[in-house]
Amino acid sequence: MAEEGLVIGCHTVDHWNEQLQKANESKKLVVVDFTASWCGPCRFIAPILADMAKKLPHVTFLKVDVDELKTVAQDWAIEAMPTFIFLKEGSIVDRVVGAKKEELQQTIAKHASSTAAASVSQ
C-alpha cells in the first residue's frame, strides 16, 4: 500500500473497513483525509498532513480518495475536498473542511491531547 509518511492510504472498501476497525479499537484519535487527485488544495495539504503524521505517532491518519472509494465518501457525507473527519472509538468528534493548516493542527491538538491524557491515566 502507498503510504505518505505515516498516512495510510485506503484503496479498497475492505482495506478502509479494516483500518477503521483497527483504529477504533486502538482508542487513538483517527484523522481521515477525504481527498481527490484533481484537487489543488488537497495536493497542497498532503505534505503538511504527512509531516504531522510523522510527528504524532499516537494519532492514526487515514487517506481516502473520494473518486476511488465513492461509496465511502457517500457514507460519510463528503461534499468538499479536502474534508478531515476526526474520530474517537468510532464516533465523529470533529470535522474540518478545506486545506486549513492552522485549524487542522489545532483540532488535532485539541482531540489528541485528551487521547494521550486518557492513555496515560489508564
TrEMBL record:
KW Transport (keyword) present: yes
UniProtKB keywords: Cytoplasm, Disulfide bond, Electron transport, Redox-active center, Transport
MF-aspect GO terms: oxidoreductase activity, acting on a sulfur group of donors, disulfide as acceptor; protein-disulfide reductase activity
Keyword Transcription tagged: no
InterPro entries the record matches: Thioredoxin, Thioredoxin-like_sf, Thioredoxin_CS, Thioredoxin_domain, Thioredoxin_H-type-like
Every Thioredoxin domain range: 1-113
Gene Ontology annotations for the cellular component aspect, listed alphabetically: cytoplasm
Gene3D superfamilies: Glutaredoxin
Subcellular location as annotated: Cytoplasm
Location, primary (coarse class): cytoplasm
A matching Pfam family: Thioredoxin
Entry superkingdom: Eukaryota
Family that this chain belongs to: Belongs to the thioredoxin family. Plant H-type subfamily.
PANTHER family (UniProt xref): THIOREDOXIN, THIOREDOXIN H1
UniProt name for this protein: Thioredoxin
Organism: Corchorus olitorius
